[in-house]
Design goal:
The protein has helices at 4-10, 12-15, 42-53, 66-76, 93-107, 130-158, 180-200, 218-228, 234-240, 250-261; strands at 33-36, 58-63, 83-87, 112-115, 162-169, 205-212, 215-216, 248-249, 272-275. The chain is α/β, with parallel strands linked by helices and 294 residues long. It has a single domain (4-275), classed as Rossmann fold. The strands form two sheets. The protein has a seven-stranded parallel beta sheet, with helices on both faces. It has a two-stranded parallel ribbon with strand order 7-8.
Length: 294
């Protein structure tokens, strides 16, 4: 039997997953309000689209391009499920606060925060400079920290449970040499996930992270072409070497984000779920660094 304290703390998350009753998918997020960062394209946008199909009552999407963001909000929004766009540069803490404030001004409340935004600019231990470090940590680690803080204070003030999902990466386990700065920033996000989940558990706020592998997104396409001069269609060649024969796709990752944000994941909190083609710690031969050239 679920304890009275747990029910009052975690709300539906404490009772639904432990019961033998299913919630129809179109009602999974009924009545909930969400903020999703990095949501005018790619994984963040796919997540909002899926959440709306699962009954989300309203959403704040955000990004830097106002024209594109407003167009996406208009496309997604209905009278029953309004979606609003908040222009934001996540390296600016005032913009981070404004995202949460927009949820309050539009909807009066907030139930779900998805930290999906991130950058993957290249930089290793020998060539990663201070500007890259600052920019990467500002967006990948600092912004989620303060978005969690602002959202948690609101949820606590309103006396209601909440759910947060941070999009991390398997690279946070260490990663390849050219992603040292990126790996460090996402490792910081993983630590934030665990600490915040522990700190906020008594407030009924569950926080988990999804550590994803190589995924096919518009941003990844641009990154591969910018840094590695990859041709159009590179995804097929890259995917052919993987066990599934393809890269991860946005909507399969979005399904796990929605699962973690919903009562389907029960009282699960502080977890970091690896979602990749490989298994961390398992390999055919010991991974070794390539010989240095020159």
């Amino acid at each position: 039997m679920t304890s009275k304290h747990t029910v009052s703390t975690f709300g539906d998350a404490a009772t639904h997953a432990a019961s033998n009753t299913d919630i129809p998918l179109p009602k999974q997020l009924a009545g909930k309000i969400a903020v999703v960062t990095g949501s005018t394209q790619g994984l963040g946008l796919a997540t909002v689209e899926l959440m709306l199909k699962r009954g989300l009552a309203g959403a704040v999407i955000c990004g830097r391009n106002a024209e594109h963001g407003n167009a996406q909000a208009q496309r997604l929004s209905t009278d029953q499920q309004p979606v609003v766009y908040q222009q934001a540069d996540l390296s600016n803490l005032d913009d981070c606060r404004a995202i949460i404030d927009r949820a309050i001004s539009e909807f009066g409340t907030l139930d779900i925060l998805i930290n999906s935004a991130g950058i993957t600019d290249r930089g290793g231990i020998l060539d990663g400079d201070a500007d890259l470090w600052q920019r990467t940590f500002d967006i990948n680690a600092r912004a989620p920290f303060f978005l969690i803080q602002h959202a948690a204070k609101l949820m606590i003030a309103q006396g209601k449970p909440g759910a947060m999902v941070n999009v991390a990466t398997v690279t946070a386990h260490g990663g390849i040499p050219m992603l040292a700065v990126y790996a460090a920033s996402k490792a910081a996000l993983v630590a934030t996930t665990k600490n915040a989940a522990f700190s906020l558990a008594r407030d009924g706020i569950k926080i988990n992270a999804l550590a994803i592998g190589w995924m096919n997104t518009p941003a990844e396409d641009a990154t591969q072409k910018k840094f590695h001069q990859m041709p159009d269609g590179w995804q097929q060649q890259a995917g052919s070497n993987l066990p599934s024969g393809r890269l991860l796709e946005m909507y399969e990752v979005a399904r796990w984000i929605v699962h973690l944000a919903s009562s389907e994941s029960g009282i699960m909190t502080g977890s970091v779920v690896d979602f990749d083609h490989g298994v961390v710690g398992c390999y055919e031969s010991t991974p070794l660094p390539e010989p240095r050239q020159g």
